Amino acid sequence: MNKKNLIFILIIILSFIISTSVFAENINEKIYSGKEFRNPFTDTLAPKPETAAGSNEATNVDQVNQRPVQPQLTFADIKNQIPFSLNGIISSNRERVALLNTGVNVELIRGNYQKDGYKIIAIKKDSVIVENRGFKLRLKIGGEIDEI
Q1: Are 145 and 87 in contact (CB under 8 A)?
Q2: In terms of Cα–Cα distance, which of 144, 141, 27, 136 is closest to 89?
Q3: Helix (H, G, I), strand (E, B) or coil at 126
Q4: Residue 17: pLDDT band by 50, 70, 90 thresholds?
Q5: Is CATH 3.40.190.10 the classification given to domain 75-147?
Q6: Quick one: CA dihedral 61, 63, 66, 68, positive or negative?
Q7: Closest CA to 118 of 79, 82, 87
Q8: 61 vs 15, higher pLDDT
Q9: Rounded-to-integer distance, Cα 126 and Cα 114, Å
Q10: Where does residue 22 rank: exposed (0-12), middle (13-18), buried (19+ CB within 10 A)?
Q11: Of 30, 67, 91, 129, which has the fewest beta carbons less than 10 angstroms from its beta carbon?
């Protein structure tokens, strides 16, 4: 092959590569326009409607002094945030020992135990009773969690 044919083939290959990359960019912009993703840092509560311009100063002060509404805490929230799981229970005549997997290691619990606000208040035959922010739940061996 002579030099002219080689240069011609090289130019065709380069133009093909450049055109496919531009084509892929155009398709990517159409697929991922950014509209389908929601911003997790925005306020999820609906904004309060603005009052009329003629409202008195006392109601404006009351609105400024109001605290924002706290989100309602549910059993599912507590259940999903529990920082440990129950691997087993060792029973003897006098006491029960719970084997808790904390994610880092397995701990032997004989009495009360607390981690991240979750407090174990009782060790039963096949479960432990956990309390957090007014909710009591039963953590069973194997990971099942029930509300008490």
Answers
A1: no
A2: 141
A3: coil
A4: confident
A5: no
A6: negative
A7: 82
A8: 15
A9: 19
A10: exposed
A11: 67
